[in-house]
Write a structure and sequence with these properties.
Layout: H1 4-10, H2 15-36, E1 46-50, E2 56-58, H3 59-75, E3 78-83, E4 100-108, E5 119-127, H4 134-138, E6 147-153, E7 157-162, E8 167-173, E9 178-183, E10 194-196, H5 207-217, E11 228-229, H6 235-245, E12 247-251, H7 264-277, E13 280-283, E14 303-307, H8 308-320
Parallel strand pairs: 3-4, 10-11, 10-12
Antiparallel strand pairs: 1-2, 4-5, 5-6, 6-7, 7-8, 8-9, 12-14, 13-14
Helix pairs in contact: 2-3, 5-8
This protein binds 2,5-anhydro-1,6-di-O-phosphono-D-glucitol and manganese (II) ion (2 copies).
């Protein structure tokens, strides 16, 4: 088995970028342990306040956020960081002006913590551009990412990331406390397998989206069902399943929330980078999310992500609405 350390020695990243990835890896080990013991420690449930997103913050959101911030500060390679749980960007005390920009969702799928459904962490890394303000460094377009990744705390804990040379998965051995290469060069199957959308929002969905869902529910010429609906409410879990098996995850704009719910910088774009490197496509129903010029840290965007053919069919329905 090839450990992550051996893999990185054979596929060298810049020293600084590798140090940032190790910081996120170390944070994930602390988070994984806390999640696995959540029911035995007072870390389930709400923390008692809402975040900048207007969402009830869970205790584990804050714990995960603290682990990641601490690790990124200690690695000394971060120019600026921004978190779903922080209203503003943060310049770490131990920062490096020409280091890296790290944008992250420390715990994705928080509503699932208390009910033992998989959750994750998503992160997006850019090289700081000299002369840009800290905020503008955070608002680079997704195409400028140097690394996109996530950790899925699932039936097994997996790290999946890309630096633009394919998408690769590493499984965590909790006894050895190391990640090992388990899914080299993931390619998402162009197969009609799963579709993932919260149909509870149907009353507020646009016509084009409703028509696409009807298409997904249609039968083949042989009268067979094409797709199964799968939606666990953790983006990382729903995305990871479809990445490996094929299908599409959609969190569309609705009449109530025209830009949808998910965040461009630290949910859509890192997954878009991973998805495209695996042969898939990620758009907002119109253009690639990695082509969108961000205007604010917590900017939301509609998300259509999965195998290329399906995302393009979804776009054609949205265009006709
Ligand atoms: P987070 O827990 O980081 O706020 O993300 C939750 C997201 C995503 O993980 C999930 O797919 C989606 O919210 C679920 O939203 P709905 O409950 O509205 O379907
Ligand atoms: Mn999230
Ligand atoms: Mn989150």
């Amino acid at each position: 088995m090839i450990s992550l350390r051996d893999y990185l020695s054979q596929h060298s990243l810049s020293d600084g970028l590798e140090a940032v990835l190790w910081a996120l890896v170390e944070a994930s080990k602390h988070i994984q342990r806390d999640i696995s013991l959540a029911g035995l420690r007072d870390i389930c449930g709400a923390a008692g306040h809402v975040n900048v997103q207007g969402e009830a913050v869970q205790k584990l959101d804050l714990l995960a956020n603290d682990y990641v911030k601490k690790a990124l500060n200690e690695c000394g390679q971060v120019a600026v960081l921004a978190s779903e749980e922080e209203e503003e960007y943060i310049i770490p005390d131990n920062h490096k002006e020409d280091g890296y920009v790290v944008l992250f969702d420390p715990l994705d799928g928080s509503s699932n913590i208390d009910v033992n459904v998989s959750v994750g962490m998503i992160f997006s890394i850019y090289k700081a551009v000299p002369g840009l303000s800290a905020l503008d460094n955070c608002l680079q377009t997704g195409d400028k990412q140097v690394l996109g990744g996530y950790v899925l705390y699932g039936t097994s804990t997996m790290l999946v990331f890309t630096v633009g040379t394919g998408t690769h998965g590493f499984t965590y051995d909790s006894e050895k406390k190391h990640y090992f290469l388990s899914h080299e060069n993931i390619k998402t199957p162009n197969k009609d397998t799963y579709y993932s959308i919260n149909e509870g929002n149907s009353s507020s969905l646009y016509k084009g989206t409703l028509k696409f869902i009807d298409y997904l529910k249609g039968l083949t010429a042989e009268g067979k069902r094409s797709f199964s609906a799968r939606y666990v409410g953790s983006l990382v879990s729903d995305f990871h399943r479809n990445l490996l098996k094929g299908g599409i995850y959609i969190y569309p704009g609705t009449q109530k929330n025209p830009k949808g719910k998910l965040r461009l910088l630290y949910e859509a774009n890192p997954l878009a980078f991973i998805c495209e490197q695996a042969g898939g496509r990620c758009s907002n129903g119109d253009i690639r999310t990695m082509d969108i010029a961000p205007t604010e840290l917590h900017e939301r965007c509609a998300l259509y992500i999965g195998n290329e053919d399906l995302v393009k069919i979804a776009e054609s329905y949205e265009a006709t609405a």
